[in-house]
Specification:
Helix content of chain A: 40-55%
Oligomer: homodimer
Radius of gyration of chain A: 17 Å
Largest interface: A-B, 35 and 36 residues
Order of helices and strands of chain A: HHEHHEEEEHE
Strand order of the largest sheet of chain A: 1-3-2
Largest sheet of chain A: 3 strands, antiparallel
Number of strands of chain A: 6
Strand content of chain A: 15-25%
Chain lengths: 147, 147
DNA sequence: TCGTGTGTTGAGAACGATTCTCATTCTCGA
DNA sequence: TCGAGAATGAGAATCGTTCTCAACACACGA
């Protein structure tokens, strides 16, 4: 489990190199933003501010980072994509999604539940001929301020 | 649990009336397509064919049906939306999503797992100040033909 | 150190799913 | 039958995302 900021950058660099990519300033900036955010970030949020990476570069580099397995695209009901650091760089977790305002928070479920759930899902996937690579579990509701 | 085709239409009509909407021929056609599909349908699939509902009407009516709680927008990684009938009209289930080709299949998980999972999630949501929580659990993997 | 080839950048154009506009048509109740 | 409001559908507009391409930067060999 890599948690320190420096360690994350080191891991990211390694993964990029493995697929023949450089760890440029723009990419570092994006990763920094995701580390700082501590949760899924909307692309729009990455495009504002003085030091923002230009739009086309941001999109391109987010794709590169995604392909390198550094970040993950979070599927939402909203109009735009959100990204977060890969679970190897943080921790396995799930999301609390507000169905009204779209706010997303991270949550973890107890390891015991996680384990038994994982076993069940593996069996199901196998039965359906799917090679299971993971699961996505989101809680949908109304957050405190929208309720 | 409503399962017969006629029953579904009756339920749909009721829900639409409850929010002051009519059950028009276009809407009925969309619901029929969703019943026949037996799983999440991409909007594109609803726009082809001789009897297809025109694009603008399809989008408008899918929104109406969604607001009336008749259908549900399925969140995917793909480029376009998919819809399925509300769970009240079918059964509570989850999805097997192929991360490569985007194919989606329905799966159910054992009731016992579902129950204990539900309890756990309720507790988590409550702790985070989230109200009225449902969950979304998808299995991500590679389907037989993509593996 | 100086090329040189290859990867990266960024501004703007292009793309495509979705939403909006508006004139026409339909439906339901009076 | 009439009238008001709802629904329709063709096309325009919107907007997140991807593509294009000329300028630039870095790694590496001479």
């Amino acid at each position: 489990m890599t948690t320190g900021r420096g360690e994350v950058h080191q891991t990211v660099e390694g993964r990029l190199h493995r697929v023949g990519q450089r760890y440029t300033a723009n990419r570092r900036a994006l990763v920094d933003a995701l580390i700082a955010a501590r949760g899924p970030v909307a692309i729009g949020d990455l495009l504002v501010g003085k030091r923002a990476v230009p739009q086309s570069s941001a999109y391109r580099n987010l794709s590169v980072l995604e392909e390198a397995g550094v970040i993950r695209r979070v599927i939402t009901a909203g109009d735009f994509a959100r990204f977060e650091l890969d679970e190897d760089l943080t921790e396995h977790h799930h999301h609390l999604v507000c169905s009204n305002c779209g706010r997303i928070e991270d949550v973890e479920i107890p390891a015991s539940v996680e384990r038994s759930l994982g076993r069940t899902l593996d069996r199901l996937a196998e039965g359906a001929g799917f090679a299971s690579v993971g699961h996505r579990l989101d809680l949908i509701g109304r957050c405190r301020s929208c309720a």
